[in-house]
Amino acid sequence: AALAIDDPGDPRLADYRGVPDPELARTRGVFVAEGRLVVGRLLTSRFTARSVMVTPAAFDALAADLEGRPCLPVFVVPQDVMNTVAGFNIHRGCLAIGERPALSTWQDVARVRSCGSLDSPAPALVALERVGNADNVGATFRAAAAFGAAGVLLDPTCADPLYRKAIRTSMGASLHMPFAADVPWADALGGLRRDGWAVVGLTPDAAAAPARDVLTAVGGKPVVLVLG
Questions:
Q1: What CA–CA distance (Å, rounded) separates 171 from 215?
Q2: What is the dihedral of CA 71, 14, 42, 46, to 10 degrees?
Q3: Are 8 and 84 in contact (CB under 8 A)?
Q4: Could you tell me if 166 and 131 are in contact, meaning their C-beta atoms sit under 8 angstroms apart?
Q5: Which runs of consecutive H residues, i.e. helices, occur in 117-209?
Q6: Full-model pTM
Q7: Structural element, H or E, at residue 108
Q8: Which terminus of the chain has a smaller tally of CB atoms within 10 A, N or C?
Q9: Closest Cα partner for 87 from 53, 45, 41, 120?
Q10: Quick one: how many helices (H) and strands (E) in the chain?
């Protein structure tokens, strides 16, 4: 339902206050999606959208994505109201609030192996260690999606894949790619090896074996690519 609001103090906009603060959204149990493309991907993802805040121009651009969602609050606001509420200039004119689900485990993500057909290529997971920059996490999700990875595992030191900047850089891939965060590597990598996964560490060291040769040598096993 489209609702016109011109008061930045309106309590219905409370979820959008303090957008630049990533911890504020996490404590509320939500995340922020920014931009028309990303908000459109949120609306077709496994996550529940709580509301959308748009300028009139962005509302027109998102009309097709919003069609058939009469129960989703859509707050249509002037640009200056959006900037005041969010705390900075939202030049894309479009934000949405998604609800954080219960965290998946690495076992949940690894179960994708049993979902493929015998004719499908062996699945691959990407494991991230100590990637604290949100843009780098988002870029990894985007690349993982482009190359058909089955999911992403992140250790406790990695940036939140549902932080606004990570989602934006991933072009919404982190909303569609299965992932598990806060993964304990000792348990996860050991468990994956026992389950038949080949664990391959990536390095820029020129003396290391080429990735193509290593992946050929694993003989069709599902692969976990570890990088950080």
A1: 28
A2: -70
A3: yes
A4: no
A5: 134-146, 164-169, 185-194
A6: 0.89
A7: helix 106-110
A8: N
A9: 53
A10: 10, 10
Tokens of 167: 């989602």
CA atoms of 85 and 210, how far apart (whole Å): 50
Strand partners, 51: 97
Q: How many residues in total does the chain contain?
A: 228
pLDDT per residue rounded down to tens, the chain (228 residues): 899 999 999 999 999 998 888 888 888 999 999 999 999 999 999 999 999 999 999 999 999 999 888 899 999 999 999 999 999 888 889 999 999 999 899 999 998 754 443 344 568 999 999 999 999 999 999 999 999 999 999 999 999 999 999 999 999 999 999 999 999 998 999 999 999 999 999 999 999 999 889 888 888 789 999 999
Listed in order, strand segments (DSSP E) in the chain are 2-4, 30-34, 49-54, 74-76, 94-99, 124-128, 151-154, 179-180, 198-201, 223-227
Helix (H, G, I), strand (E, B) or coil at 58: helix
Q: Return the structure tokens found at 33.
A: 């999606």
